[in-house]
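Our platform keeps sequence and structure together, in a single record for each protein. Such a record has a labelled line for the sequence and another for the backbone structure tokens. This encoding replaces a full spatial description with a residue-level series of whole-number codes. Below, we set out a record of this kind in full and without editing:
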Amino acid sequence: MVFKTEKIADYELGLLYRDRAFQKVLAPGVYRFLPGRAEIEVVKLDLRALPVRDAALAALYLTHPQVVEAHFLVADMGDGDLGIVTADGKLAGLVAPRSVAFYAKALRQVKLEVVDAATAFELPERLVGPLARLGAKDLVAVVEVVSDHVGLLYLDGVLQKQLKPGRYAFVKALHRVDVASFDLRLQTLEVTGQELLTKDRVGLRANLTAVFRIVDPLKAVALTSDLKDFLYKELQFALRQVIGTRTLEQVLGDKLGINQAIEALVLPKLGDAGLAVPSVGVKDIILPGDVRELMNRVIEAEKTAQANVIKRREETAATRSLLNTAKLMEDNPILLRLKELEALEKVSEKFGNVVVTNGVEGVLQDLVRIRPKGA
């Protein structure tokens, strides 16, 4: 007579069925069954798996739940429950709402923690790291708010709270979880290529630069959905308003006043939006080619006129100096004679030979004479 032999390993558990009806649980070991008219079947369950997945085990839980619970930790979750299973103190898995999972008790010390997923949407900090490694993205959202940032948590589209830098884990099995992150550091926004008209109808192009930072994210999201677009539009409108109330001469001559006027217009609105703007200013003002050429001609004419005024002033000063010198020579014969000798020296430098017919007296008296003879 040939016996039917079944071997159950140390890491296995056997389910004995006779004529498809459950009989008992088989512990690890060797079993022999006499052949007969009854159909013998042994289902072997691998207890190493976390969780143990087998259709026979799930069916047995429906018909003999007390048998299954004697050998397995049964995580039978309700509609609003999330199961957190640990094995030997380590996170082993998550059990979704309205599902059942089986964890063998024989090989490990397993524990089950049930979280009310409908209300307790944030999981303890101790689970954040293990959940990030587990990667159960369909049940839990693990988010990170980096340094110098702040996060806003939304649950099913409703703002819940503000998050400081760090890592968080939220239950998303029953809810939609979103986290919006905001950079709190200084940022720069460029408003470039703005075509503008001055008060005297002169067209020009201007570029504006603003340095800003977010100081109140709650105000920011309450006022606008696109913070940078809102800031860009406000700066653009303020630039147009300020340039449009000034002539070209005022625009080119008072950039500081333009910057201050723009700040006065935008700072109250940006403060209501949770923004701080430490500095804002016009970086470039670009004139069209014909206007630039005209301005160059005006500047050239102004500089030429200034040069002529300076030249006339210097000529007048030189003439006045000559007049004063002449008056001094008129009253002082010795000074007059010295001037005549200076003139003689300069004349002598320009000629190689000077011929005189009257001796030294002719040189001193007739060659160079400032005062008329006999005066």
